[in-house]
Structures are given as structure tokens and as C-alpha cells.
Protein 1
Amino acid sequence: MDKNKTNYSVARVETYTKTSITKAERHNERKNKSYSNMNVDLTQTPNNIHYKRCETTYNEKLKELIDNAQVSLRGLKDNAKIFDELIFDINSDYFEKHGGYEFAKEFYERAFHFAEQEMGTDSIISAVMHADELNTALTEEYGKPIYHYHLHVVAIPVVMKEIKWTKRCKDKSLIGTTKEIINQVSHSKKWKSEQLTDNFGNPVYDENGKAKLVKSYSLLQDRFFQYMSDSGYRGFIRGIKGSTKEHLSDLEFKIKKETVKLEKITNSVDEKQSNFDNYMQYDKKVEDISNLGKPKKFSKKIELEPKDYETLTQYAKKGIVADKEIYERDTKIENLRNTVNRWIEKYDGLVEKTKEYFHAIKLAPQKVADFFKSLFDKEKQDELERQRIEQEKIQAERKAREEAKEKSRLEKQKLKNSPEYKKRRASYGR
């Protein structure tokens, strides 16, 4: 067991239409009787924790929000992305070493509050921590059931949108001014990429003078890591961009197992097919002997009695069966010989690849140990330096965003409180 294993925090987003969300709903809320993920243990499903429960269906909840004017689908096509699923995750080993299930519940409750901050409490439809998916790799490693704790948050991506008076307005003085502000559903605007800035908040450009952008999902990853760190949770680092390490670790384990199984089955089928083809020739001979019929004359002078003929045919059948058994034995011996040869080749190859390494250990064991330690230490130092630079960038970007949001809020508030705006709203009401 690797006690120095690095743990990574992960925050990713999946998008759904009103049609496709039903599959995610059945999975998240455990509405299926069986699952393609063979690691789902339904006996442990009562341990799943809802930080926000959807009492109806996701689409029914969406309709409720629309009817209450909390969200708007104005201008969207039927196949538009309506739902966002935020998935928060850390290596299963992290939770096992910090208190297991109880620690995971506290951790993901805090992560849920982060999701509320990101999406808005009213926009969140469901938030559930899964505690019933077995991590087969760690289960085998620890020798006891280890579960993959992670959080699913389904929300509606809304942005504030100003609706302006058009040329159709009878009061020409209102044209182009703000008519109303709505919570527009928009995945693209909610997760719009942002301008990349340096440590001092200055925009960064490429060699062609084009502004460099940072993907919104990457920024979400940054914010999640920072939020959980600020909340007092330690022992992990920001997830590597584009990584799905937790899932891959378990997936690779399952693939490895299934690959070995498949190889055995394939070899068995091939062997049985070959044996079947060979056995058929013996069975055919036995059948031919059985179908000889009545006693036959070998010549004009030699004729067998029925009893002697029966004895002869029985001996012939036994001889063919014996040949068949010998063939089976020889086939098994040949298979074993081939297996041994393969292992000998693998062993020889391994010896050849590692001989210099073991020779070095024999001559200077301490130097070899120091060399590998220096490699690992450098890797850790490089990672820490990368984290430090990213933290500085995150803080600078967060400060710039907060300042921009505050400026926008004050401007909108100023607009709403202006006498001219109130006058126009009152006029519109008449």
C-alpha cells in the first residue's frame, strides 16, 4: 500500500437536455433496479446522503421554477442544454485515511455549500453523496470493502439578463432601455471562458496578440480546491487538468481483470474448437464401425460368426477411443510445454531489462537509493512550486472577478434606484 500516494480534488460538469437528464436522474436518485456499473451495491444505498432532495422529477422541478418565474427558457430550442451536473470527487483513499464515511459526509456537505455559492441555492435541484459504489481496487488492497464517496449536484445554469425595450414599444423614449431583468437559462454564458491574467492581474496574450483564455471548468476546479482548502480540509492538491484518476484507477483494475478473463475464455474456445475438430474424426470412425451392419465376408473362404464379429468391432472401437485419449494427453502436454516456454521468455526478458539495475544496487545500494529519492523529491518540489504559482494566480483572478461583480451589482442597483427607471417602470405598468 502506497502511504505517500497523492490525492487530487476534482470538480467537473456534465450537461443535459430535458430528455437526456432522465438517465442521470435514475442513476443519481437510484431509481433503477440494476446498473451498468457493476460496483453499485444496492444494499449500501441507504447510506447515500441527500443535502438537497428532489421530491418530484428533475423536469417537474424545472417546470415549477419556470412557473414561479425563477428561471426562464426564453429563446431556447427544445434540444438546448438545460441541466448542469456538477460532480465533486477525491480519491477514495483520502477518505479512508481521514475517517471514512463520517468524514466524507462532512466533506461533501461543505462541497454542497460551494455548489450553492456557484449556482445559487434556488437553482439547485438535487445534491446527493453516493456511498454505495465499491472501489474494487482499494477493496482488494485493504482487504475490506472501500467505497468511492463522491457528490452529484444537479442545477440549472442561470445568468441575469437585461431585456430591453424594442422598436415595437409605443413609447419611443423607452426603446433601448431596460425593460426587465430575468434569470435566463444559459449554459454557454454561465460557463463562458475568461481572459487569462498574470500574477498582477494583467491580461495575457499569445505571440499573435490574441487574448489567451482560461476554460471555465478549469476555473471551477481552481475555486473548488481553494474553497475546500480555506474550509480547513488538507491532504490533497488540485486535480490535474483533464484527469479522471479516481475513475481510471478503478476502471483500469476492472479492465485488467476482465482482460485476463477474456484471454482465458478466448484461449479456451480456440482450444475446444481445435479439439472438437479432431475429436470429430474419431467419433466418425466409431460411427462408421457401428454402421457396418451384418457380418461381412473377408474373402470367399473366410467368414466371421456374429459373436466374433461383435467382439472385433468392440476392439476396434476401444482402439479408436484409446487413440482419442492419447491425443488429448498429448495436446495437454503440448499446451503445458508452450505455457512453460512463454514464462521462460518473460523471465529472461525481465532479467535482461533489470540486470543493470540490480548490478548497480549490488555495487552501490546507497547511491541508487539516494538517486531515486532525489527524483521523487524534485517531483514533489516541482509540484509545490506549481501549486504556489497557481494559488497566486487564483487569488488574483478571484479578486478581479469579485471587483467586477461588485461594480456590476452597484451599477445595476443604481439603475434600479434611479428616478428615471422607476418612472418608466410605472409608466409601463399603466
Protein 2
Amino acid sequence: MKAIFKPIVLLFVVLLAISPIIVYCITLRRFGFAESSSDFGIFGDYIGGTIGTIVGAIGIYLVYITYTSQVKFARKQDEAMKRQQFETTFFSLLEQQQIIRSQLKGIIGDETYEGILYLQGLKSQLEDALSELNYIQDEVTEDNKVMLKNRVNGLYIDFFLPNVSNLGHYFRHLYHILKYIDDSQLSDSKKYADLLQSQLSNAELYMIAINGISNYGRKKMLPLMDKYGLLENYNANGDMLTVRLLSIFYKKTKNKYLMHKTGKIIFVGGVHGVGKSTFASMIKSRNSQIDSLSCSNIIKWENSAHKEVENVGETQNKLLRNLPYFIDQDKNYILDGHFCLLTEHGGIERVPIEVFETMSPSMIVVLKEDPNVICQRLNQRDSHNYSLELITEFQEKEIIYAKEVADTLGVPLEECNSTNRKNVILSVLGSF
């Protein structure tokens, strides 16, 4: 836009300056040239005045260009000076943080540890403290955020208070580094947060994450951590409790180790018997580089003929625990599963949204079919009779929730039926 502005201004100035000449020439053409030599003298004076105006206008424009260039140069110099001053302080703070870490020292068990080894030992202690939450895995959801906040805070306090003399200074200094980055208002401030992150071990990232959820860090530390993605590189190593806590409290952070790094997952959902396996096969037949996975196989249900589950939360925990072992980070996948599940009491329960957030699909496809057709397929395939009313309700809830999941994740949604299946397949293939 700025590159176009200057030529436009110059053109406007020139046109404005020569417009009197154009008008005068038109007048002469209309009424004829003067016969008296004195009239031509007047014309010469007019032209001279016009040229002077042009020169003056161009001079003003050149002064303007010079001024804007000087302002731009001054701004660059000022920004460079501010950046230099910022970096001097930043790297000094970063060095001081490393010194604080190296000076940490404490007794764990019967042994005395220092530095990073001490922090690794504290991480194990904190993990043990939070393991109590494993007994309520099915309650670790967004809907229970307030309860989780209080439970995590209570468990963390019991861990933190005996270690406050060591960890208090460490966390405060780390917060001030993040605050310093944020206050700089540099356009590329994220890269400095990334430099800070690169200096932190996995054990540190874990304790920082839990500290952020607690009362000690939730108001000030957590927003900055989430804003700059300080936990992007935390490796949960299959710890699904921590994964779910991060997905609930650090909404803006896209963790690189939750699932896949480079591969793409498209989630295909729908009720039992709607044709998910057939749809996946049709995708694979058109692109052999795409693999297909089934949630039911990953979970390893013992009896595939019965679709009811005893505990939806535990079933999905099993899925998330097992899925990373099936995912090749260099491949793309069609993953078929459900948005809702039938409970053993005949109810229909939604799969927690955190499950889909952890999967991080790039697209969602929900399949639809005539409920009568679905009932016939299930009766023939599983020798199990499902009522038309149940399948109809199941499918309606599946579609409604699929839309909510897609909206929450901010990913495209395709509703697929027998009439638009070819177009949806082309859309899916085009997304890889």
C-alpha cells in the first residue's frame, strides 16, 4: 500500500500543476492564437509561472519524501536500539535463571540432589501427588474445571510448601522473564519466549504447568504461558491425565507431543452400522498413502457384538493411551469412531471434548444413513436387535455433537450421506 501511495501523490501533484497549461491551450484552440506579439509575451509569462508552480510542487514533494525517509530511518534506529537494550537484559535474565536452577539443592528420599537432577526428583514427587486424580479420570473434563482447579491446587500446595524455599525464587524469576518479554511489545516477541522454552527441561515444564493451574500461578503465570505457548514442547510420555489437564487449562497451547507431529488425522464419525469402514476403504482405494484406523480396534473391545460401554471416560482414556502407538508421524490417517457412545444402561453419552482436542483432527466427517437401513445392518452383522427409535435418537445426537466438536476445534465439517458421498470423498482427499 505504501509503495503505491508515493507514485499516486507525485502523479496528482504533476496533474495539478499542468492543469492551467491544459486549460490555456484549450482556450487558444477554441478562440484562435493571438495576433499581437504582446499577447504571446503574456502567454510566456503564464507558462513561466506554471512551470514555476510545477517546480515548487515537485520540490515540496521531494521535501516530503525526504522527511518520511528520515522518520522511517529514525524509527528503525530507535527500534534497533530498543531491541539491543531488550536483548542485553533478556539474555542476562536467561543466564540468571540458569544460575538459579544450578543452585537448587534438596533431599529426595535419602539422597541429596542438585540442579536438574533435583528438579527431576521433584517432578516424580508431584506426579505421585497428582496420581490421586487417576481415580476420577472420567471427571477430568471441561465441565468439571472448577472442581479440578480446586483439587489440583490442594494437591499442589501439599507438594509446594515443603519446597517453597527452593522453588519460590525459581518460579518468580521465570515469571519476570515472561513478563519482560510481554512488556517489550516487540513484533517477534514469541521467538524470545521460544528461546526461554528451549532452556527448560521436560521436568521443569511439567512443574511449571501444574504451578500455573494452582493458585500460585493461575492469575499471572498461566495467561503468559498460554499466550506464548511455553508448554508446546512438553512431552507427556503417555501420561493422559496431564494431557487432559493441559487441554483444559491451556486452551491456546498446541502441544507438539500430544499426538502426531507432522501426520494428519481426519476423524470420521457416525453411529454403529452407518458405513464408516466402507467410507475409509473408499478413501484408501483412491489414495494408497492414506492409512485407516478404527477407534474400536485401538480400544480393543473384547466383544464387538455389543456396543454398550460401562464407563465412557475410561474407554476414551484407553483410546488416548493407545493411539500414539498406532500413529506413524510421517503418515496421514482416516480415524473412524464415535461422537457419542451407548451406555450399558441404554443411555447415550457424549465422548468428552478433550478427547477430540487431544486427537487434533484437521477435518471432521459425520456419516448419515436411513435409520431403518442401519438397524437391518446391525441385526445382520451383530445378531443384536436395536430399536428404530434408539438408532434414530443416537444418530441425531451424533450429528448435533459432531457440529459442536468441529466448531470448538475450529476445523471443517462434512456431513456425508448417500447423495453427496462422492463430493465428500473428493473434499477429504483434497485436504491431505
